[in-house]
Amino acid sequence: MGGRASGPPPLSGTIGRIWHALGALFVLLVFVPPLLLLISGSLTEPGLPPSPTPQLIPDPVSTVGYRQALEVGGVLRAALNSLLVAAVAVPLSVLVAALAGFALARLAPRGTALVVAASLVALMVPATALLVPRFAIFRALGLTDTLVPLIAPALLGTSPLYVLVYYLAFRALPRDLYDACLVEDMTPMGIWWRVALPMVRPVTAAITALTFVLTWSNFLDPLIYVYDRDLFTLPLALRSLSVLDPTNFPVFLAGAVLATGPAVLVFGFAQRRFFDHDDQTGRNRP
């Protein structure tokens, strides 16, 4: 008595699971075949004439391309440089965007409208229009040919889009929740860290994954600011491998597999966070 009666799952939850399954099937059909061909090509023995048709299972199977990509192509050092940049820039970008989005959600309506309008205007400015002034600033500061210009945009949240996404997420939280926190005499930083941020974990997972992929695959900024080969990031190392002879193309494909793996893992982790949040929301739903 008094317990909640067990019964079939609600129809909305069943429909949501069907859409999740259809979305996962679509992703598999679109992205898995190219990845399989990429892995298959990377396992082809270098030095052989290119096959006229793609082969799912190369004959013979060889891992020489991976060894040459790591030793000759400098992929290992470049991957470490990219990992260093991502390890600093991604958490910093998410932290700044979350703080700015929370502050924007707590502003007065008039101030919020002005900041949102300014953020939308900033989003419409082409990134290439900022290359020359940014290069002049970093050169005047003596920061060219270092990894600092690749990390510095994280101090501004990398993109106004991330701030706006967090703003919408924090704004969607019930206002009574914020009022209850104020009654408990919590500071704004306490409300952000202990209450608001844990409730928007899917947003944090999505922005983390997107920021990581954009940072990991950033080619234009390293091309402009980095000249020392020891400081090359992974996209620059892959560019040097792309000019190899066609018979050595498996070396380039091996480097591409090594560059794609971390991004796939991060997106898989973010997708799992989404499913975990949906399942928890469904269990807590009355």
TrEMBL record:
<keyword id="KW-0813">Transport</keyword>
<dbReference type="GO" id="GO:0005886">
    <property type="term" value="C:plasma membrane"/>
</dbReference>
<keyword id="KW-1133">Transmembrane helix</keyword>
<feature type="domain" description="ABC transmembrane type-1">
    <location>
        <begin position="79"/>
        <end position="270"/>
    </location>
</feature>
<keyword id="KW-1003">Cell membrane</keyword>
<feature type="transmembrane region" description="Helical">
    <location>
        <begin position="112"/>
        <end position="138"/>
    </location>
</feature>
<feature type="transmembrane region" description="Helical">
    <location>
        <begin position="249"/>
        <end position="270"/>
    </location>
</feature>
<feature type="transmembrane region" description="Helical">
    <location>
        <begin position="21"/>
        <end position="43"/>
    </location>
</feature>
<feature type="transmembrane region" description="Helical">
    <location>
        <begin position="191"/>
        <end position="216"/>
    </location>
</feature>
<keyword id="KW-0472">Membrane</keyword>
<dbReference type="GO" id="GO:0055085">
    <property type="term" value="P:transmembrane transport"/>
</dbReference>
<keyword id="KW-0812">Transmembrane</keyword>
<feature type="transmembrane region" description="Helical">
    <location>
        <begin position="150"/>
        <end position="170"/>
    </location>
</feature>
<comment type="similarity">
    <text>Belongs to the binding-protein-dependent transport system permease family.</text>
</comment>
<dbReference type="Pfam" id="PF00528">
    <property type="entry name" value="BPD_transp_1"/>
</dbReference>
<dbReference type="InterPro" id="IPR000515">
    <property type="entry name" value="MetI-like"/>
</dbReference>
<protein>
    <submittedName>
        <fullName>Binding-protein-dependent transport systems inner membrane component</fullName>
    </submittedName>
</protein>
<dbReference type="InterPro" id="IPR035906">
    <property type="entry name" value="MetI-like_sf"/>
</dbReference>
<feature type="transmembrane region" description="Helical">
    <location>
        <begin position="83"/>
        <end position="105"/>
    </location>
</feature>
